[in-house]
Amino acid sequence: MGVVRRMRPALGTFVEAGASASAGLPALDAAFDSLALAQQRWSFQDPSSELSRINGSNGNWVAVHGHTVRLLHLARGLMLASGGYFDFTVGGAQVRRGSLPDHGGLPALERGSAQDVELRPGAVRLRRPVRLVLDGIAKGFAVDLACRAMRGAGAPTGWVNAGGDIRVFGDIELPLALRGEDGGVQPCGVLRNAAFASSQVAAVPSDSFPSDIIGPIGLAPQQGVWSVLARSAWRADALTKVAAIAPGDSRKQLLERLRGRLA
After folding, report:
1. 106-127 in b/e burial notation, b at 16+ Cβ within 10 A?
2. CB-based contacts of 80: which residues, under 8 Å, 6+ apart?
3. Where do the domains of the chain lie, and which CATH numbers do they carry?
4. Are 222 and 244 in contact (CB under 8 A)?
5. What is the pLDDT of residue 206?
6. What is the pTM (predicted TM-score) of this model?
7. Across-strand partners of 65?
8. Tell me: the pLDDT tens digits for 159-209?
9. Calpha distance 1→222 (Å, rounded)
């Protein structure tokens, strides 16, 4: 089966998309158009994004796209289901660390709770001055939407790889490799009708894995490269944070309960 593929910058990384040749370039264009919209909506760094408008809303309702409501619903649900090992309300702490920009507004709490995020169709409200951060889960969700866009454009098979957040669909297998702490890459089989993501907790910050993972109070992320397989890319990426923080004796069971597994 022939495939077409393209690589473009998006979501703060380089993204490769591939699709069956029968769908051609229109399917890839649909994927990259979807990714561009995701970046406009969910970038913490962009002061004009929907996420930044939510974070600066001072307790008021903010009109947003339906995909934004869906993403926040998923994030809130996973925060509750994981017992806070996944936490998307820690933007205030990350701003104080200097890992995210400060766009002004009311002084933010270092972290909030899932109950701080109120959702209704087409709108979001923050009950307290928290700063939501969606970088990883949003990248995965964007990959899922890009795959959906390709299918909508007629691609029966394809994949999207956004800086290591990967999803594959249809009758195709994509070779998969795991990156170690030393930067080396080890082949580990193929990915088929599934998603994969990795996060690294390093002793020294890395340009290759710049994630800043903040655990529940009293728990620090454990050093290593944490790679997770799941059915969707949003879940795979979010669960890498859970894997990094969860105690070793309960990590496997927790990930399985949250519908993922270590790669």
Report:
1. eebbbbbbbebbeeeeeebebe
2. 114
3. 3-40+136-262 (3.10.520.10), 43-133 (1.10.3980.10)
4. yes
5. 52
6. 0.93
7. none
8. 999 999 999 999 999 999 887 767 678 888 899 999 999 998 876 655 544
9. 42
